[in-house]
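Deliverable D2.4 — example input (structure tokens):
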């Protein structure tokens, strides 16, 4: 019986090495990649919030592509991946009486005629994108992870 116990100690070491190599190592490396993606996603949300503040404080230039691009570059200067505009900012209009909620429902790109008691509301939609290069490429998964984010804000 003593000889059998002595032989079992080596099998535990082999099993631990196999579990570490086949399970724990890929799990750790995948966690590092996911941390990069989640961090970039958070940074993109912060950049989009900065664009919202820019649109709110500069309603006449809220859809100016050059001004918005420079505001985005300033907001996203310390991000993991380069954040850019996916498309030009779009402006849409609607009368306040048509609104059931705070988001535009049936907006148009031309200014509608609203009554004097029904103010015109202007909305700007931003779309931003970034591609995260994963630090630990895992076989079977893409080493570039694209992220897209868009949002609409009422500027007037």
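Example output (designed residues):
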């Amino acid at each position: 019986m003593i000889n059998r116990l002595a032989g079992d100690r080596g099998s535990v070491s082999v099993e631990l090495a196999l579990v570490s190599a086949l399970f724990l190592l890929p799990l750790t490396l995948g966690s590092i990649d996911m941390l990069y993606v989640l961090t970039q996603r958070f940074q993109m949300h912060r950049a989009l919030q900065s664009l919202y503040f820019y649109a709110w404080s500069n309603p006449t230039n809220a859809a100016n592509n050059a001004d918005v691009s420079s505001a985005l570059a300033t907001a996203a200067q310390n991000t993991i991946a380069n954040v850019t505009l996916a498309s030009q900012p779009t402006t849409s209009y609607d009368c306040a009486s048509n609104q059931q909620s705070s988001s535009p429902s049936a907006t148009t790109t031309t200014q509608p005629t609203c009554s004097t008691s029904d103010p015109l509301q202007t909305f700007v939609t931003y779309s931003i994108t970034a591609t995260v290069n994963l630090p630990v490429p895992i076989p079977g998964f893409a080493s570039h992870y694209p992220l897209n984010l868009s949002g609409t804000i009422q500027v007037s």
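The beta strands are 84-85, 90-95, 120-133, 144-154.
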